[in-house]
Structures are given as structure tokens and as C-alpha cells.
Amino acid sequence: MNKVELDPDSSPAAAFGAFLRTSREARGWTQDDLSKAVGYSATHVSAVETGRRPPTRPFALKLDVVFGTDGVFKRRAGEVKYTALLEGFPEYVFHERRAVELRLFVLGIVPGLLQTKEYAAAIATGAVRRGSITPEQAEERVKVLASRQKQLRREPSPLVHVVMDESCIRRPVGGPSVMAGQLDHLIAFAELPHTVLQLAPYAIGEDRAFDLPVNVLTLPDRSLMSYAESAQQGHLERDNDAVLPVLTAYYQMQALALSQAESVAVIRQLRKELP
Description:
- By secondary structure, the protein is an alpha/beta fold.
- It has two domains: about 10-80, lambda repressor-like DNA-binding domains (434 Repressor (Amino-terminal Domain), Orthogonal Bundle), CATH 1.10.260; about 90-270, Endonuclease, Chain A, CATH 3.30.870.
- Helices cover about 50% and strands about 10% of the residues.
- The protein contains twelve helices and six strands.
- Strands 3-2-1-4-5-6 form a six-stranded mixed sheet, sandwiched between helices.
- Helix 4 runs antiparallel to helix 5 (about 70-80) and helix 10 (about 175-190) runs antiparallel to helix 12 (about 260-270).
- The longest helix is centred in the middle third of the chain and has 17 residues, at about 135-150.
- It starts with 11 loop residues before the first helix and ends with a helix.
């Protein structure tokens, strides 16, 4: 069984999972051993260890009893509970890191995987000003994003298809200098050999396939997975029959979108208007 490598700095859930794995291995226990000790399935233990499932308070309390840690797991689980990440997103990130192809659609802002550090920080700072997240949660978001972007530079690189609604490049974020750097970054992204970048212009109108951000992953075994977000929650779909209509709609939208050459030309023109 392949051991999933963990990055404890990528999120509170990953930090909890790494701490749990280290504690278990220090006892010389397998996941099955721990499963029997706490009364949860080995699948549940594995999902928590890899950050795909957040630890619940009852699970953490059982861990404190088993390991004799006097509330340490309970405290760490509380840190995960107050994370700025949407429910379902940590599990999506786990699969994103394994995907061989990613298809992304976004509107309103540049997708996280393509954001510069300055652009991402400006978005997070805006959320803090609105009171929707704390400064600590803003820092967490930027850190998780940096970890995700790092994974995309792995070898072999995954194929990345991105369709951005025109609003993503029209909406000013962080001021002229931040936007200039972001537009330069998009142009550089489009020049990579494993990427496709397209703009969905306003002219598409009601024929735009999606009204919310949607991601579709192709995993190494060629199975499909989709992820969509509302304002409060993320939903991960693993059933191929349910994902295929989403993929079909994505292809239809790509056909209506500007070509990569046309998209880059629009971005370049906007860049010229900035200092």
C-alpha cells in the first residue's frame, strides 16, 4: 500500500493528520490497530491521517484516551474546526494533487491555482475587512494556496485546462500594480506546454454553462471527479455517471469561449492599460 506523503503546513487538517500518523507509528501500530482501539473504521482513520476528512470532537476524545494525551488531540481538532477552508475542500485538494488532468471554470476572480501571491493576499485581506474570516484564517488560505500551486509543478506535470469568465480579468483586485503582475502571470501560464487558458466572454450570455465555479479532475486510473462550491460549502462528486454531464457542459463552454490566442490577446491589451 502506497504511503501518502503529508505536508503538515498545507492546512490544519493536514497538520492534525500528520500528528496522528506520527503518534500511531511511534506506538508501532497500523491503521487497523488504531481502528480497533478507537472504534472507528480503518478507512476513517486513513481519511483523517491524509487530511481528507476533518477530525470530529468525539474522534479526537477517543484518541486522547487511547494515546493518553490529556486533551492534545481535542485541542488540535478545535484548530481544524475553525479553519477558513470550506467543508469538502480539504478532500478535494487531496485528489487534486494526484490528478493527471484538471479542468477549471471560475468567475469573478482569477482561479487560486493561477493567482500571484500579491493577488491572493489582496483577496484574503478583503475577506478580513468584511469580517468573514480572521487574519489568521487569511494567512491559512494563502498558505494552502501556495502549497497547491507547488504541487502543480511536480513531474510529470498535470494537464491544466482553465476557462475564466471575462469578469475575472475585468475586476480590479489589489490596485493597478497587483493587477499588472497578475495579468503578466496569466500570460506566462498560457505559454506553458501543459496548459490551456481561455476566456468566456460576456457575449456568451445565457449560454454560459455554469453559474458557480466548477473543477473536474481526471485521476491516474482515468476516473473522474468534480468539485463545485457555493458560498458556504464545497461538494465533491465521485460518481462517474454524475460527473460526465458536468464534463460535457465544460466541453460545450470551451467551444463557445475564445481561443487561447484570442484570450491572451485580450489579456495583453488590458495589461497595456496598466502602469
